[in-house]
Amino acid sequence: MKFGIPGVAALIVAHVAGMIDLVALPIWVGALQERFGLSLQQSGGLVTLFLLGVVLASVTVAPRFNRIIQKRVAVTGFAVAALVFFAASTQTAFAPLAGLHGLAGVAVGSALSMIHGTIGRAENPHRLFAFAGMGLGFFAVIFLGVVPQIMIAAGGAALFLSFAVVMAVAAGVTALFLKAPGAAPEAVDRAPFSRAVWLLIVGISLMTFNQAMVFSFVEVIGSARGFAKEAVLGVLIALGFVNLFLPAPLAAVLEKRLNGFSVVQSGPAVQAALALAVTMATVFPLWAPAAAVFVAVQIFTHTFAFGLLARIDTSGRAVAATPAMLMIGSAFGPFIGGALSQNLGFPALGLAAVGVAVLSILSFNRAKASA
């Protein structure tokens, strides 16, 4: 399906809004701990509630992707999320923040499932998802460079206000320019997922668990190691530039040159090696490069996984469940990462990441064998 330049732009903006946790996790957790006075476990738990809301919504609407009004769900989801994050900016206690995080997750998950399902029905889902990744990298540069400075001046509420603005922009852009694909042929829509699809979903979910478990605490780890606050923020800004110029453009250029299954089988191993460096390095010259490229591995690998899923399941349902397969791992990552950090120290995060990476590689290996 062709979307035109306005339609592609709307999909990219909506993808950025829906995937905001991928960029904001370390600032999010850090703000909840430092500026709202919550413990590491509570901070991770609030983000987990948001991600669980995304999962719940996505697993509910993704199977019905071809039978609902996709544009209406996307616009409504982002609009509700904007209102909920605005409400969160007025709260400081754990209980109301918990409820609002869960509700925001449901709204974002519903909208994002429509966006990813629509991308999956494009003429070239791999390339369009790569473009969306470039948009996310561009956004990360701005967000990580600006929002921490605003929070220093205006307090933690500025984080939630920034989320509200992003969601409101996504709601407006999708309302004006989103071109929904409509229904797929019934025979395709009703066909059950193959074994390869399910194994790819498991592998991606395990990678995102590692991503969230480690990346959520990058800022906290940097501070605990005694690195200067400005240096840690500099790494986060560098991370945004890396994400903009490296993984998604490379994934687009190398689409026809690399085997998708080879990429997804290698991704978890690289991710685990970087996790060990991020959680165990005590000198800044070793810690900083690993932290700066950590997210890039996930973006690059998932672009190829998205293309594989769209090729194997042409109904769009599997890729519509992308928020669920991403966030089911991410949902438990911050909470478990907080528990491990608080009770066993940061090196435990790296060791746990290695074990999870092994399971992810096994899943991708079996998916290749089943395809």
Summarize the model shown.
The protein has 371 residues and is an all-alpha fold. It has 17 helices and no strands.
Describe this structure in words.
- The protein has 371 residues and is an all-alpha fold.
- It has one domain: MFS general substrate transporter like domains (Growth Hormone, Chain: A).
- It is built from 17 helices and no strands.
- The chain has helices at residues 4-18, 20-34, 40-61, 70-88, 94-120, 125-154, 157-177, 186-190, 195-215, 218-224, 229-245, 247-253, 260-280, 284-312, 317-320, 322-344, 347-370.
- Helix 3 (40-61) runs parallel beside helix 5 (94-120).
- It is globular, with a radius of gyration of 19 Å.
- It starts with a helix and ends with a helix.
List the total number of helices.
17
Distance, first to last CA: 25 Å
Which range best describes the helical content: under 10%, 10-25%, 25-40%, 40-55%, 55-70% or over 70%? over 70%
Element order, helices and strands?
A: HHHHHHHHHHHHHHHHH
Q: Please mark out the parts with pLDDT under 50 across 5 or more consecutive residues, or reply none.
A: none
Number of domains: 1
Helix and strand composition category: mainly alpha
- The CATH class turns out to be Mainly Alpha
Main sheet record: none
